[in-house]
Amino acid sequence: MTETVSGAAKSAGIAGKAAGMTIERVFSTDGVHPYDELTWERRDVVQTNWKTGETVFEQRGVEFPSTWSVNASTIVTTKYFRGAVGTDVREWSLKQLIDRVVSTYVKGGLDHGYFATPTDATVFEHELTWLLVNQYFSFNSPVWFNVGTKSPQQVSACFILSVDDSMDSILNWYKEEGFIFKGGSGAGLNLSRIRSSKELLSSGGTASGPVSFMRGADASAGTIKSGGATRRAAKMVVLDVDHPDIVEFVETKAREEDKIRALRDAGFDMDLGGHDITSVQYQNANNSVRVSDEFMRAVEEGTSFGLRSRMTHEVIETVDARELFRKISKAAWECADPGLQYDDTINDWHTNPETGRITASNPCSEYMSLDNSSCNLASLNLLKFLKDDNTFDAELFAKAVEVIITAMDISICFADFPTEAIGKTTVDYRQLGIGYANLGALLMAMGLGYDSDGGRAMAATVTSLMTGVSYRRSAELAGVVGPYAGYARNAEAHKRVMRKHQAANDAVRTLGIADAQVHKLATQAWAEVQKLGETNGFRNAQASVLAPTGTIGFMMDCDTTGIEPDFSLVKFKKLVGGGSMQIVNQTIPRALTKLGYAEEQVEAIVAFIAEHGHVIDAPGLKTEHYEIFDTAMGARALKPMGHVRMMAATQPFLSGAISKTVNLPETATVEEIEDIYLQSWKLGLKATAVYRDNCKVGQPLADGKSDSSKADQARATSSSVEPVTEVKEVVVYRPTRKRLPKSRTSRTTSFTVGGAEGYMTSGAHDDGQLGEVFLKLGKQGSTLAGVMDAFSIAVSIGLQYGVPLETYVSKFTNLSFEPAGLTDDADVRMSKSIMDYIFRRLALDYLSFEDRSMLGIYSAEERQRYLETGSYEALAISEAESLKADVPVEATIVEDAPADEAPAPEAPQAAVKEAHTSAELLEKITGTAVDSPLCMTCGTKMRPAGSCYVCEGCGSTSGCS
Asked: Basic and acidic residues bias located where (predicted)?
């Protein structure tokens, strides 16, 4: 097991049917190397743990294109550059990294007859390099870790193992899984072959059952960790619903969660990573129940269901199907496990049933294939293919898919594998996993709601095009280097699944010009798949999945990961040289412009979002457009079924499945989870996982302890201490009124809001602090004039008694009523009401720049300065000059705009104090918790990505590469 199995030797000798492939030059320029088309700069990468202040990584003078965000360069430098830091062998340029990988792929293609001529190999090299350096796609992490190094050339991130009903097989499972964890990857397997605790051994004793053996594997995973790092290993454990130990399996993690609560209440440190959490079992795996159509129909009909012996397959126990389904849903409500995998649906789309059934998945549930197999992944950045007119460039997307699929298949020729069985299956069936990221950002930029018919139609057509082009290229490759070794025995089944994909594509109903254009190309691709596949067969048993794209999503500067919607409309951004600011998602101005909003309206809406974190009551935004800006978290969070419907729209066009968790609010019921599981089955999903906010105790919050934990511990402590009677002196503080001097400085402002005219007179103390406001609206003696006089007196007295102006501004800005609309004030172009205008004007006249920044209020001059310099604040002369100097920049940015977009109007403001990521920022703005773990590397709160979590600061993931 210490030696890896090479795919190169196994794939050698395949006789090609044609003289190699001709590679078309599409992206790169003939005679110009892709690197020479970019401007390169040197940067310093310094990472610290904000909690401890400790420097966790430092490498200075690294080289990246100027178009790459500092966050992307930070993550690539820390995660993917090889060689010991501080030595001459350490990689220091992105060019070295990409050349190391691409040159290995090109050599593999030449060695195994993929290219018609050396010129085609050169074109392929340039095309692949161009796509990578311009962030159009990325391979999965193991490629960047291993390819081109002296380490084994492991290119796969996803593994499926198998275990039989013998002690040798069980112990070998522990061993194989351990080596996969050691290499930084994850694995999944099905334990259903192991006989239950209700069956006898050949010796006459009673079997231990699969759940007991899960303890040993769980302890192994927790001990080895993953890739030698501090994060947990990634693993999936599956059990069939008809296994006699299914109830014990379903309830294992829920019972452990009860144990965690009891230990926490007793004062033990039960946070994830805490000193005492290791006493809890089954925490290192995702658990899933493999359910059949027979079981789901029994649930619908309310009938009984039989649990079968593993040895004789006879029914040894009968249970109520609905009661068992209820236990599954209740356990998921309590601790987010188990998820469901729909066995009959999975195997109905299986291209290799003659070889064996699909019984399990990788840890994130997107890779589903034969036992003892692996899959290498690559994901495209969808936003890169959005044209200036906000339509999707389907033709360019298809060309990129062709290049990427070719490269992915070549990698299997030279790849190494952790076991001989995995190596043989992977080489014989050549499973690939092309996918994408930034779907949420793409839909928003196109003015399409994530949970809308238009959004789903666009996602379906893009996914169909991707998989159709992938299989078309796979058939073309089969004509050059031959079909996969297992194709002959599975030819009819494989072609049947291709027809199912084509039929699903034909069933898509497009709603606009943009998705209709994509669908037309997808339809052509699937027609060619049938024709070429009939002649050549296919090079790959599997082509596509939708992975979490955590770390590589940041490498590509994506706003959203995988199939996910946008996490939130506000982002956290650390500044070069220190400090931080809050920015609005760069896709929002693009979407508003697409929807036809004027520049002034876009500016006002973006400013509102910067302050509130949502679009509800944003000035001038039509309510029918709210859904376009729905997000995973926040005031307009997507409904759970919105996530399910999006998965259902794309699932028929994927070889594998989708890594995604359906998030539910803390108030969700068991019945709601039952409905999600049932509807997912009816809609044709292959797998579903749920997570109810705050359902788990063993998970650190930003302060290390949840509020409920602190309160519980406080009550526990107080109950064990004798009451003490104290007499305290009570001091009552009364406000003092600070009257204005007899003669004071004042200013009078005339204004027009939505056609209504008025005047405002404001008076200040000698120190310039606002002390009174008088408003004149309407005719003297009218009701409106009287109300304004009374309002002015109330505000003035409040100011003189010490109520801060900031409080009035925060309360009255964005107050919405008529008259509203355009104003005659260059600094405040749009106003939702007269009150909204008045207090924005007062903020501009009397508050400091720093205070106004916290409220998202800027003058016209400051907004113009931002468009020109990227900063609202005027730079001192020395600072302005220093920006011109060619000096390295410290790589600590967390989020940045896509590299190919010009700066769009946005409303950055000083980041809320104590926030260190977008997740923490959203918590501060909205006052609601984001139930995510802290990063073990840099200490910041992670955010969901697929069925795991990813850190914005350093790119670490909670289990998925």
From this structure: 704-713
